[in-house]
Amino acid sequence: MDPEATKNALELERLTGGWWDETLAVMAAGSEEAEAFTKAARAASQEMEALLKDTTKVTLDLEHAKQAWISATSKVPNLEQITACLWDETLAAIRAGSEEAKAALRKAAGTGNQVEVHVSKDTAKPKPKKRRPKTTTEPHKEPDEHHPNCIDPEKDFYDVCWDIIKEMGLTGVYMKDKMVVSLRPGL
Length: 187
Description:
- By secondary structure, the chain is an all-alpha fold.
- It has helices spanning 3-74, 79-113, 119-123, 157-168, 171-183.
- It has 2 domains: 3-76; 86-133 and 143-183, no CATH class.
- Helices cover 73% and strands 0% of the residues.
């Protein structure tokens, strides 16, 4: 071989070896970068999958909320239904109140009948009712019209009221109320 060719071959081999080392170094660095890139891509892919799962869950939750809202708003009563419901409640309250009032009246009337009256008044002969003394000496004039329920126009108001109380069986209640009123000072 020609010395010049040998020299060129050696120079070429030296240059090729250096390039080869550089190529291998670049390839090794590129491989490491590729591995790092692959790892980063996998991590990003996993994060994207997690975000996609979260987004899917949020979307499903929103869909459920939408369905619940639609269901709730479709069941909202209209004005007629609200009025009917309130009217039913009002009638029930009125019925309950009237039953309570009737029960209270029965109880009050029942307790009034249990008030004991003095025995001597019950067994004694009834005395004639007292009349107001006449204030004028003029003869009494009959009123022009008589009330159809009034038997004796001479009776005063107290006697008429007392008869009504007796007819209704409320003498005990009257006596009880009169006793309570008489015990109050200033009345």
